[in-house]
């Protein structure tokens, strides 16, 4: 029996919701009936199927821009039920050779942007008996070595720590959780993982053997924001297909007989 989540009438903010994982999160909340508002530095332009979320041009690294956006949404709807801190990312760069300015901007985008959004939505959510839900999008890089994107991984680790702290500090009305993403298939996959053959080899390092779809990340967000998760706060939900095959399994004797390991070697 299918279990549908109905978020009709709920107002949801999604940072960086114009493309990639963010667009999948937006679509999933819309399918659940929510009103979605997104922000970013660049307008998404014409979209695909379904209603377009309202877009606001905001640099989430700038606290005053974030404050104005949250205030405008709260005034427009009279409520904010869910905030998804999705904006993030960072190019590959060696730690020693990257500039201090680069490190600062990566930290601002992946950590401080979520700090600003969360801080400004809290009084709006906390003023209502129903409270609200904050969902932070983190990464598998938060809990394993992240060479070439070290500051990105460190910022996501900080975001997971913030999630657990705010879940306690803001209880009982505002729940705070995180979704930790593994590798996700988006329109930018080729830039990160190469052509289709290279992507297949990368996918083989995932126990399920495939990249996540953006909507699968969105489904986790909708679940955590819904009444079904009313007693879940401070959690980090992994959406990573089982994580990663341990490297030693490619070389240890006998492990080739493990289900799926032949494709991961």
From TrEMBL:
<dbReference type="Pfam" id="PF13561">
    <property type="entry name" value="adh_short_C2"/>
</dbReference>
<keyword id="KW-0560">Oxidoreductase</keyword>
<dbReference type="InterPro" id="IPR020904">
    <property type="entry name" value="Sc_DH/Rdtase_CS"/>
</dbReference>
<comment type="similarity">
    <text>Belongs to the short-chain dehydrogenases/reductases (SDR) family.</text>
</comment>
<dbReference type="InterPro" id="IPR036291">
    <property type="entry name" value="NAD(P)-bd_dom_sf"/>
</dbReference>
<dbReference type="InterPro" id="IPR002347">
    <property type="entry name" value="SDR_fam"/>
</dbReference>
<protein>
    <submittedName>
        <fullName>SDR family oxidoreductase</fullName>
    </submittedName>
</protein>
